[in-house]
Design brief:
Layout lengths: L2 H13 L22 H19 L5 E3 L1 H11 L7 H8 L9 H16 L7 E10 L6 H11 L2 E5 L4 H15 L17 E10 L12 E6 L5 E18 L4 E7 L4 E8 L4 H7 L2 H10 L1 E10 L1 E8 L1 H6 L23 E11 L21 E4 L4 E7 L4 E8 L4
Parallel strand pairs: 2-3, 4-11, 9-12
Antiparallel strand pairs: 1-14, 2-4, 5-6, 6-7, 6-9, 7-8, 8-13, 10-11, 13-14
Helix pairs in contact: 3-6
C-alpha cells in the first residue's frame, strides 16, 4: 500500500470523520501517524477563530484560512524563549501529554508537505514569510528551524524607507502567488519592526464545471433593504444535499478536482448568526454522515473575494495574547519589544465556472424533473473549503455581498 494512502487511512481511522467524496467510515484505532493529532485540534481552532472573526465583523464579507494560520503560529512558537512558545502551542489547542513540542512541529512539517503535494496545489498558493527591521538580528537556530519544518524564510527590511519596504514585501508575495496577490500593504501604519505574513490564494477547479452559457445576472438580497445584481452560476444534477432539521439551514457539498471539497451552507432567512454559532467539528461530522444524493438545481454566485486580517485582536479573543504583551519573551527571535510585532493574514478566493472537464459534462440523474430541488444562494451564505486528504480547513468564509 502506498505510504501516502496508508497515512490517510490512519488519520481517518482516528478522526472518526468520513471522506466527503467516498463517505467511507474508519473506526479502527491505529498507532501514531505523522499528523494524527493535528486535524481535530486544527479544526477546533478553525471554528473558534472563524466565530470570533464573525463576531467582530458580523455584517462584512469574511475569508480566512485557519489551517495556514495554525501553521504560521506553530512556526512562530519555535523562536520564543521562556514559556511563550509553549503557551502559544497551548493556545492553538495542543496538549503536551499527547504529543511533545518536537512531535507537533514534525507533524506540521508532514502536513505542510502533504498540502504542497496535494492535487489542490496546482490551484492554491499558501505560505508564511517573516520580515524584520534590518537593525534587528534573528537567531540562526530559529531561521534554520522555520526553514526545516515550515519551508519559511525571514528577510531584513529597511522599515525607515516605507516605499522600498512595502515594495519589497508586496513583490515577494506577488511572486509567491503567481501574481494573484499583488498588494498586501498600502499604508505606512501597516508595517511593524517584526512581522509574520501568512497568505493563501485559491482558485477552485470544479470536478463538474458550470456552463458559462447558463450564468446569468440575478438578484442577491444582502438584507431587507439592499439588493444587488450578481452573476449567478447554474448547474443541475445529482448532488450531495441536506436540509438540516436541527440547525436552520440547507447545504450542498461539491467537489473540486483532486482533494478539494466545499460546503455551501445557506442559512434560513435571518438565521446566519444561529448557523455560525453551531459550526463545529461535530456538526461537520454529522453533516457528512447525513448528506444524501438529490437532484438539485443549484444557483451559486460567481465571485472573487479577498480579505486581510491583522490578527492581534482576534488572537487575543481566542486566548493567544503572549505575542502582543510585554510579558512575552522573544529572545529566540530577536531582542525587540514584542508589542511591536504584527501577524497579518491575507486570503484570496476565486470561484467561477471552470473545471478541467469539458463544459458539456452533465451529472447523472436518477430522478425526474418533478423531484428536483431548487437551491438558490441569493442571500448571505457560508462556505467551508477542505482538503479531503488531510481534512484541513483550507478556507472559511461568510459571503454577505458577492463581488
Amino acid at each position: 500500500m502506498p505510504v501516502v494512502l496508508y497515512t490517510c487511512l490512519l488519520w481517518l481511522s482516528i478522526s472518526g470523520l468520513s471522506t466527503a467524496k467516498n463517505h467511507n467510515s474508519f473506526t479502527d484505532e491505529s498507532s501514531r501517524s505523522p499528523h494524527r493529532g493535528l486535524a481535530p485540534i486544527n479544526t477546533d481552532f478553525a471554528f473558534n477563530l472563524y466565530n470570533r472573526l464573525v463576531n467582530l465583523n458580523p455584517n462584512k464579507n469574511i475569508l480566512v484560512s485557519p489551517v495556514s494560520i495554525s501553521m504560521a503560529l506553530a512556526m512562530l512558537s519555535l523562536g520564543p524563549g521562556d514559556q511563550t512558545g509553549t503557551r502559544l502551542l497551548q493556545g492553538l489547542g495542543f496538549n503536551f501529554t499527547e504529543a511533545s513540542e518536537a512531535e507537533i512541529h514534525q507533524d506540521f512539517q508532514h502536513l505542510s508537505r502533504l498540502l504542497s503535494q496535494s492535487d489542490m496545489s496546482s490551484s492554491m498558493s499558501l505560505g508564511n514569510i517573516m520580515f524584520f527591521d534590518q537593525n534587528l538580528k534573528l537567531e540562526d537556530s530559529f531561521l534554520a528551524a522555520i526553514k526545516h519544518y515550515y519551508g519559511s524564510e525571514a528577510f531584513a527590511i529597511d522599515f525607515k524607507n516605507w516605499t522600498q519596504a512595502s515594495q519589497q514585501i508586496n513583490t515577494y508575495v506577488e511572486r509567491k502567488t503567481q501574481g494573484k496577490i499583488m498588494q498586501v500593504f498600502s499604508d505606512p501604519s501597516d508595517l511593524a519592526p517584526f512581522m509574520l505574513l501568512n497568505y493563501i490564494f485559491f482558485k477552485g477547479m470544479w470536478e463538474f464545471p458550470f456552463s458559462p452559457e447558463n450564468t446569468r445576472e440575478e438578484d442577491f438580497y444582502v438584507n431587507e433593504t439592499t439588493t444587488v445584481k450578481v452573476p449567478m452560476m447554474v448547474q443541475s444534477g445529482l448532488m450531495s444535499y441536506l436540509h438540516d432539521s436541527v440547525i436552520p439551514c440547507q447545504l450542498v457539498l461539491m467537489d473540486f478536482v483532486g482533494n478539494g471539497t466545499i460546503f455551501f451552507i445557506l442559512p434560513d432567512q435571518d438565521q446566519m448568526e444561529t448557523v455560525t454559532a453551531a459550526l463545529s467539528r461535530d456538526t461537520i461530522k454529522r453533516w457528512d454522515m447525513l448528506l444524501t444524493k438529490r437532484q438539485v438545481n443549484l444557483h451559486i454566485p460567481k465571485f472573487s473575494m479577498s480579505d486581510t486580517h491583522d490578527l492581534k485582536e482576534v488572537l487575543a479573543e481566542v486566548g493567544i495574547v503572549d505575542l502582543f504583551t510585554g510579558q512575552s519573551n522573544f529572545s529566540g527571535h530577536t531582542q525587540h519589544d514584542s508589542k511591536a510585532s504584527k501577524v497579518i493574514h491575507k486570503a484570496m478566493l476565486h470561484l467561477d465556472e471552470n473545471g478541467v472537464e469539458p463544459v458539456a459534462t452533465k451529472r447523472a440523474s436518477r430522478f425526474g424533473r418533478s423531484e428536483e430541488l431548487n437551491i438558490n444562494f441569493n442571500r448571505p451564505f457560508i462556505m467551508l473549503i477542505y482538503d479531503d486528504f488531510t481534512w484541513s480547513s483550507m478556507l472559511m468564509g461568510q459571503i454577505m455581498k458577492p463581488a
